Amino acid sequence: MSEDNLKASGNWQSQKSSLTRDRIVIAALECIIEFGYESTTMAKIAKAAKVSQGSMQYHFPARLDAIKAAINYLFAKRLTDHQRDLEDVPDGVDSMAHAIEVYWRHLNEGHYVAYQDLVIAARTHPELATVLKPAYQRFVKAWRRDAVNLIPEWDGKRAQFELICDIGQYQMEGLAYGRLNGQLNDQQTRKVLDFTKDLLSKMAAEL
Predict the structure, then answer these.
(1) pLDDT digits (tens, 9 = 90+) for 143-172
(2) Which of 1, 131, 150, 188 could form a disulfide with 5 if both were Cys (CB 3.0 to 4.6 A apart)?
(3) What is the rounded CA–CA span in Å between residue 121 and residue 128?
(4) Which residue segment(s) compose the domain that 166 sits in?
């Protein structure tokens, strides 16, 4: 085999390996969404990714390795989706109200459900907590940077900006948690969400 053919073969093998790894990572996240963290096993991930156990072990020797990669992918996907939707502000809609609706919509999708399950599991799995916490902190830092870009007048008013973000974020995340298993109905949720939008819009206008 010529040197060029060897290089081409090597590149193909590298690409194939990378694609396989990506499939496993996505499958791991899908398993967490479907089965929950506790019930997500290496066998289930391999089956969902349609790879052999040997291939699974090659890319991720331990279950936590696959979970860690899935967590990083989870937050990267959430951030990419959030950035895309945040930029698409409808005409005549207040920027704060738009940002709240975008974040709320994302909190009701499968990726956030997976995150909630991981948070609960991390309470009794310290090794999971050490992976989840820094990934979450990077995500929050990035999406708040995007919020400042959306509302430039907040730049230079960091303390007030962080307070508004804290109120909005934790209020909405609490609502999302309360909706698990139907603990809050749609009417209750919308009432609190609309109140939150009005409150934060007024706070932002006073900055």
Answers:
(1) 888 777 766 666 677 778 888 888 888 999
(2) 1
(3) 8
(4) 64-205
